[in-house]
């Protein structure tokens, strides 16, 4: 949270990692995520006079990133599909790791969630925003964000075939944060 005494431009760089993680969760492509973060920072820098000092810079940046992603997505709906498979051939899969739940399995299940549920889980789970902040960024009621996150966690548990109350045994902190409340909210 920017207390108003620090120039927000000086603070931008501290949020790059979180922005990239959020962008990657939305785009599912590292180069597209990098482009999205770059566009976000450019827009933020160009419109820094619109930022209200003393408010949450990180939430403001996440809102810009989210809006930029969905604006671009609306534009791409009019584009032609990858019929030759050229784009698909460039996709890479990282290797699975040992443990009850492989990271690759989680990613496959996570990508099956509707965009709104995935977004809610990233914001409140992996990125650590409060439900109220996430709701403000998405322009919806707090209850809507809570509902999306809970439905997303429940659906992930189903897709991953986890028994009720079953503990996850993973070391990836972001994945654990997203799934943390699945047992208690089920």
Automatic annotation (TrEMBL):
Transmembrane region(s): none
RNA polymerase sigma factor 70 region 4 type domain: residues covered: 106-156
Signal peptide range in chain numbering: none
Gene3D superfamilies for the chain: 1.10.1740.10, Winged helix-like DNA-binding domain superfamily/Winged helix DNA-binding domain
Domain spans labelled RNA polymerase sigma-70 region: 14-78
Keywords: DNA-binding, Sigma factor, Transcription, Transcription regulation
Pfam families: Sigma70_r2, Sigma70_r4_2
GO biological process: DNA-templated transcription initiation
Record flagged with keyword Zinc: no
Record's keyword annotation contains Transcription: yes
MF terms (GO), sorted A to Z: DNA binding; sigma factor activity
Assigned protein family: Belongs to the sigma-70 factor family. ECF subfamily.
NCBIfam families, A to Z: PRK12546.1, PRK12547.1, sigma70-ECF
Name this protein carries in UniProt: RNA polymerase sigma factor
Species the sequence originates in: Frigidibacter albus
């Amino acid at each position: 949270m920017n207390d108003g005494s620090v120039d927000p431009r000086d603070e931008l760089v501290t949020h790059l990692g979180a922005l990239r993680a959020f962008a990657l969760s939305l785009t599912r492509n590292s180069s597209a995520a990098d482009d999205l973060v770059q566009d976000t920072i450019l827009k933020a820098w160009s419109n820094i006079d619109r930022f209200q000092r003393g408010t949450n810079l990180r939430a403001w940046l996440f809102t810009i990133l989210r809006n930029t992603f969905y604006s671009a997505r609306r534009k791409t709906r009019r584009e032609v599909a990858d019929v030759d498979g050229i784009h698909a051939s460039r996709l890479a899969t990282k290797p699975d790791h040992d443990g009850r739940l492989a990271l690759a399995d989680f990613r496959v299940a996570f990508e099956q969630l509707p965009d709104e549920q995935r977004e809610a889980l990233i914001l409140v789970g992996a990125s650590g925003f409060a439900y109220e902040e996430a709701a403000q960024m998405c322009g919806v009621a707090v209850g809507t964000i809570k509902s999306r996150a809970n439905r997303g966690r429940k659906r992930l548990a189903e897709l991953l075939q986890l028994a009720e109350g079953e503990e996850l045994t993973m070391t990836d902190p972001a994945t654990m944060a997203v799934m943390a409340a699945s047992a208690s909210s089920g």
